[in-house]
Specification:
The complex is a heterodimer of chains A (270) and B (708).
Chain A (H helix, E strand, L loop, with lengths): L24 H10 L4 E4 L6 H12 L3 E5 L6 H5 E6 L2 E6 L1 H8 L2 E5 L6 H11 L4 E4 L4 E4 L5 E6 L12 H4 L3 E4 L5 H12 L3 H16 L11 H12 L4 H13 L3 H14 L1
Parallel strand pairs in A: 1-8, 1-9, 2-5, 5-8
Antiparallel strand pairs in A: 3-4, 6-7
Chain B lengths: L7 H11 L2 H4 L4 H7 L4 H15 L3 H17 L2 H18 L1 H9 L1 H13 L1 E2 H14 L6 E4 L4 E2 L3 E4 L2 E2 L5 H20 L8 H4 L2 H22 L1 H14 L4 H8 L2 H4 L8 H7 L20 H33 L14 E3 L4 H6 L4 E3 L2 E3 L3 H14 L27 H5 L9 E7 L4 E13 L7 H8 L1 H14 L3 E7 L4 E2 L1 H12 L9 E6 L4 E8 L7 H20 L2 E9 L5 E7 L7 H8 L10 H11 L6 E8 L11 H17 L2 E7 L8 H5 L4 E3 L6 H13 L1
Parallel strand pairs in B: 2-4, 10-16, 14-15, 14-17, 17-18, 18-19
Antiparallel strand pairs in B: 1-5, 3-4, 6-7, 7-8, 9-10, 11-13, 12-13, 15-16
Helix pairs in contact in B: 1-3, 1-4, 3-5, 4-5, 5-6, 5-7, 6-7, 9-10, 10-13, 12-13, 17-19, 22-24, 22-29, 24-29, 26-27
Classes of the chains: A alpha/beta (270), B alpha/beta (708).
Chain lengths: 270, 708
């Protein structure tokens, strides 16, 4: 089977992505969207930020353009650049410019990873001006009411370099995400994978064990995403201890003693 | 072709020399008779080891040679070496007599070696067991070594070695189940009973242990089924005969109640007297012992302390809450705010994951309060109602509960105390082995002295500083525009014009028509280790201080992370590292004042400081880690740390540092340094400065050179 190639602005999410609301985040997002306010999602990795965005794009019926930021991402990667075609230069929009032009939702994932100059182009979009300056073509691109800018940020990284500047963060409506409470998390795993209730509970308990170790040997505990991975493996017939080992333990640490300790925890649990 | 075996005369000659027979009067004929019968490789092996042991003690080496024949018969070469080295370690720790008995008592060594080979050793497994118990829910527990396995409810103690079972795997399992069982005692409330009833009645305590085991096993089966299975494995391996006794107990109705989810320890205590069986089962191997006194002492201290901390934390929360509600002016009331527990269902209750309620407002307690709540719940099974009143002003004095910090200077007074100090190994090149836990290192503060030194220095070197600043500014990581790139952010018009011209004239078009910004990131962390030995008194010390000031000035421009430490000491028991600037501190007036007060102290032992700094570097993330030593001579200490010994230990420490990705570099003013520094640091990693007056300039120069 051949996969379909789509332009980013044509990527509409047709089926409802499963998202379990924890608080009022859906209502707040919708209100911010109607008011043209940009949104900042805070929270640890794998707690459902990206899924939330997909869900909201589906709800609002707008295309979702996601950019995963990395430390080499420059403003031209977002806005666009000239390319050469047949001896001439041609302007090609970057994902952010496309999103503004087409009234899409632009989601800049892990924005702190990007280079500092990218924040310069975000700022005018993120306040009441709602314009994207395109210096190289000498234009200002005005955003339509449908356009929405969302960025995500993981405050868990305790590096000064990876902190969001006040001038940036104070432009956004912030939604905080965290791992759901035990009961809810188990329900999420069950809905995502169809795993039986008892195993889901045990997986959540295991996740709490690893989260308790955060700061004493682990940088980060097991995320909901990892639990879903493990549950999927278990549903497919893998033994729980092996599933935890491969889908969770190996994913959260490389330290050999820690690996053994966490494996001992999972083998005690199942 | 194998070499010829040594003759008896040759062996005696060798032994005479390395055992210094003219002073020691040992009879080398005795070991020689045995050694001569060995094959040549074994002869060499024994003689070499004898020589290495002789570096520690001659009498010990002689005994080793005498016993070598028996050792070779009973152990392989690696074990023989381990045996010899364990004796030298013993000598370091306790002196000649125990070391001699270690050599003579070969059988004992073989036995322990066997135990060690298949047993689980605390030292090795602690790094696994600690995260294991901390991952299990509840209070953050500590792990320590003791004669017997038990817990005082804050620390879990287990023996240094366990070798009840035949394989290493089973012995580890024994460790694991033991710590988990002791954890279960705390978590499921074995100590939530009146402990006094048990304290003077060993028989009753024993029966209590047995009943609690039944209850806790049921708890573990529910909570950690995998661990429960492990327990059963150990039981059948080690206590098959107890099965029946336990079965008998389980047929009694009042005991069956212990299996229930809500069963409490008090029930175990209540029913003891009523149970009549012929044979009580013995305590299982993983149960450890119950140390009533220890539990009671720790319990009493903690209860009071946690109540105080919790109620003070609540009053802080209450204050925050009233500050938040700006519109309601704060009402001054004499009554303490009363909190309530929210969402109090069984499941969340156990995890301590409870929200608090104040005047109908939900408050999610911060992490440290949550930990306190967890700990309180572990003790009482709930948060007692009287805890939920915020403390009134001045009701508690929390200082009372803080553990007194020991002032390092006080510890020094009187005898050599090793409390709170860091202990490091030291390399003995003759022995080709480390002296274990040999050097005692302590970090000390330097008192800042606010005088004119810094201002004078800056003034004196005004010109130099200006030019240094200039050179270092050039170095600073700046964006570079790279031209003619195959891909990039923008079009390089010049390159494009060329390329188009090429195409017009029929040539192939170049693809390199883009410009790209290249960011030069300086990710350098550097620690300066400054010699503060007595020999730097005067000139050198002043030059060192001036160098540091200039260096700090230019490093601030460069933005490299840096730390400065001074080192000195006297003998291995007193190695002192002076904190001048840590990575976290900013270069401010206090740091300047500390530099100004760098005073010459005693001697120069180096290996231990390098090892300590290597350890410090582990927590620093940087692509380049530099360790720069400013020194005035060879390593030299009051004891035997001089000459080749000191040089070799330093070399070994530098090698260890290098292995961890640290680049060592040495700047020295010792003119003879060329004789030994290449051996220690490698041919390119040192600089000798002939003129002390030039030190300040050179140091910055060298730094620029090695980091660019």
């Amino acid at each position: 089977m051949q996969s379909k190639a789509l332009k980013p602005e044509e990527y509409f999410i047709k089926d409802e992505p499963f998202y379990q609301s924890i608080g009022e985040e859906i209502e707040v997002f919708e209100a911010a969207y109607r008011q043209g306010l940009p949104i900042l999602l805070k929270g640890p990795t794998g707690c459902g930020k990206t899924r939330f965005m997909e869900h909201m794009a589906w709800r609002l019926k707008r295309p979702l353009i996601t950019v995963s930021c990395h430390d080499d991402l420059t403003s031209s990667d977002l806005v666009g650049r000239f390319l050469i075609s047949g001896g001439e230069t041609v302007w090609v929009d970057g994902p952010l410019a496309r999103a503004v032009r087409n009234g899409a939702i632009c989601y800049l994932d892990e924005v702190v990873e990007a280079r500092k100059d990218t924040t310069v182009v975000i700022h005018p979009l993120a306040d009441d001006r709602r314009v994207l300056p395109m210096e190289k073509v000498g234009e200002l691109l005005e955003a339509t009411p449908e356009f929405c800018l969302t960025i995500s940020y993981n405050p868990g990284y305790q590096s000064v370099m990876k902190d969001l500047k006040q001038s940036t963060r104070q432009r956004f409506v912030a939604l905080e995400f965290d791992y759901p409470d035990a009961q809810l998390e188990a329900e999420i795993i069950i809905k995502e994978t169809g795993i039986e209730d008892k195993t889901a509970q045990q997986l959540v308990k295991f996740a709490h064990m690893t989260r308790d170790l955060k700061g004493s040997g682990l940088d980060e505990g097991a995320s909901t995403r990892l639990l879903v991975h493990a549950a999927k493996l278990i549903v497919d017939g893998i033994k729980p201890v092996t599933a935890c080992k491969t889908a969770i333990t190996q994913a959260i640490t490389d330290d050999s003693d820690m690996l053994i300790a966490i494996n001992e925890l999972s083998s005690s649990l199942f | 072709m194998s070499r010829q075996s040594l003759t008896e005369a040759q062996i005696i000659e060798f032994l005479d020399k390395c055992l210094e027979v003219e002073f020691s009067f040992v009879k080398n004929e005795i070991p020689a008779v045995d050694i001569v019968k060995q094959s040549r490789p074994h002869q060499d092996f024994i003689l070499n080891l004898t020589q290495r042991v002789a570096a520690t003690n001659i009498e010990l080496a002689y005994q080793f040679a005498v016993h070598s024949k028996q050792a070779l018969e009973e152990m392989d070469l690696l074990m023989v070496e381990a045996w010899a080295m364990s004796a030298t370690d013993q000598y370091d720790k306790q002196g000649l007599y125990p070391a001699m008995s270690a050599i003579k008592n070969l059988d004992q060594f073989i036995h322990t070696a066997h135990v060690k080979a298949c047993g689980a050793v605390f030292e090795e497994e602690a790094s696994i067991l600690l995260p294991f118990i901390q991952g299990l829910a509840g209070r953050k527990l500590k792990l320590a070594e003791a004669e017997q396995a038990y817990t005082d409810t804050e620390t879990i103690f287990i023996p240094a070695i366990t070798a009840l079972f035949e394989t290493k795997k089973e012995n580890f399992l024994h460790y694991k189940v033991t710590v988990a069982y002791l954890w279960a005692q705390i978590q499921f409330g074995s100590f939530r009973v009146d402990l006094e009833i048990l304290s003077n009645d060993p028989d009753k305590l024993n029966k209590f242990s047995v009943l609690e085991n039944i209850r806790l096993e049921a708890c573990l089966e529910r909570e950690l089924p995998g661990l429960y299975r492990d327990m059963q494995i150990l039981k059948t391996l080690f206590h098959p005969e107890h099965e029946q006794d336990t079965e008998n107990l389980l047929s009694i109705e009042s005991i069956q109640a212990l299996l229930h989810e809500n069963a409490e320890a008090a029930h175990s205590l209540d029913i003891i007297e009523n149970i009549k069986v012929d044979q009580w089962p013995e305590v299982y191997c993983y149960q450890g012992t119950i140390q009533i006194d220890q539990v009671a002492t720790i319990f009493e201290r903690r209860i009071e302390k946690e109540k105080a901390y919790f109620r003070v934390a609540l009053s802080e929360l209450a204050n925050e809450q009233s500050n938040k509600q700006d519109d309601n002016p704060i009402e001054e009331t004499d009554e303490n705010s009363a909190f309530k527990l929210a969402n109090k269902d069984e499941h969340t209750k156990q995890s301590g994951n409870i929200d608090l309620e104040l005047d109908g407002e939900l408050i999610t307690p911060p992490e440290h309060v949550r930990e306190l709540m967890t700990s309180i719940i572990v003790d009482f099974g709930e948060i007692p109602p009287e805890y939920l009143f915020a403390a009134g002003p001045g009701e508690y004095d929390l200082k009372k509960y803080q553990e007194e910090e020991i002032n390092p200077n006080d510890v020094w007074k009187g005898t050599y105390h090793e409390e709170g100090a860091e202990i490091y190994n030291e390399w003995n090149f003759k022995r080709q082995y480390y002296h274990k836990n040999w050097c005692v290192l302590r970090e000390l503060e330097i008192k800042p002295v606010y005088d004119d030194f810094v201002a004078d220095t800056l003034n004196k070197h005004k010109g130099l500083l200006k030019s240094l600043r200039h050179t270092f500014e050039v170095l600073r990581g700046e964006d570079k525009l790279l031209k003619r790139q195959p891909y990039g952010d923008d079009i390089d018009i010049d390159a494009l014009v060329d390329a188009l011209a090429d195409t017009k004239s029929g040539m192939e078009m170049s693809e390199r028509v883009f410009t790209k910004m290249h960011k030069e990131d300086r990710n350098v962390a550097v620690i300066f280790m400054v010699d503060m030995s007595g020999s730097t008194r005067g000139w050198i010390n002043e030059a060192e201080r001036e160098s540091l000031i200039l260096l700090a000035e230019v490093l601030e421009i460069l933005g490299d992370r840096y730390a400065i430490y001074g080192f000195s000491g006297m003998t291995r028991k007193r190695c002192e590292l002076y904190k001048i600037k840590t990575f976290d501190e900013n270069y401010d007036d206090e740091i300047k004042a500390r530099i100004s007060n760098i005073q010459p102290q005693d001697y120069t032992r180096m290996g231990v400081f390098i090892r300590h700094i290597t350890k410090m570097f582990r927590d620093v993330e940087a692509s380049t880690k530099l360790l720069i030593t400013l020194s005035d001579g060879k390593p030299d200490d009051y004891d035997t740390y001089r000459g080749e010994y000191g040089v070799e230990d330093t070399r070994q420490a530098l090698y260890e540092a290098h292995r961890e990705g640290i680049h060592p570099f040495c700047i020295t003013i010792d003119e003879k340094a060329r004789d030994y520094l290449p051996h220690m640091y490698g041919a390119a990693n040192y600089a000798v400065i002939d003129d002390i007056a030039k030190l300040p300039q050179k140091v910055s120069d060298i730094y620029r050179r090695i980091t660019s």
